[in-house]
Design a protein that fits this description.
Strand content: 15-25%
Structural class: alpha/beta
Largest sheet: 5 strands, parallel
Oligomer: single chain
Keywords: Phosphoprotein
CATH class: Alpha Beta
Number of strands: 5
Radius of gyration: 13 Å
CATH topology: Rossmann fold
CATH superfamily: Response regulator
Number of helices: 5
InterPro entries: CheY-like_superfamily, Sig_transdc_resp-reg_receiver
Protein name: Stage 0 sporulation protein A homolog
Distance between the termini: 13 Å
Shape: globular
GO biological process, one term: phosphorelay signal transduction system
Length: about 120
């Protein structure tokens, strides 16, 4: 199963992402907003994609990055719903993360990034 986890406290963003992903053929979508629930979901579901809202509080965001191992970097997609997270993006790029959808979020860009991650060998 191609499970997706969305990590965000923004209900509107979660609804928007869930709607787009479901219409694109990805119905197995779960959400979380804290490290403990996320960790539980990751080990239980073995997701093929983890979408992280870059507007999470910095303590949660940093704790999430500590949770994930090197191989998981290739299944992470960072969403920046607004344009004021540029410094964080540069830090993540230096750490080896490569999938981002930055303000303005377009449906086609999101779908392209999701397909790129889902189509790679995640084993």
């Amino acid at each position: 199963m191609r499970n997706i986890i969305i990590i965000s406290k923004n209900d509107e963003l979660k609804r928007q992402l869930t709607s787009i992903l479901t219409c694109t053929g990805y119905p197995h979508i779960y959400s979380s907003y804290d490290c403990m629930k996320t960790l539980s979901l990751v080990y239980r579901l073995n997701p093929k994609l983890i979408i992280i809202d870059m507007e999470l509080p910095s303590i949660i965001f940093n704790d999430l990055l500590k949770l994930f191992s090197q191989p998981m970097k290739k299944i992470m997609l960072f969403i920046a719903p607004h344009s004021d997270v540029d410094a964080n993006i540069l830090i993540l790029i230096k750490k080896g993360y490569s999938h981002f959808v930055i303000h303005p979020i377009t449906e086609q860009l999101l779908i392209n990034q999701v397909k790129e991650i889902m189509d790679q060998d995640n084993s």
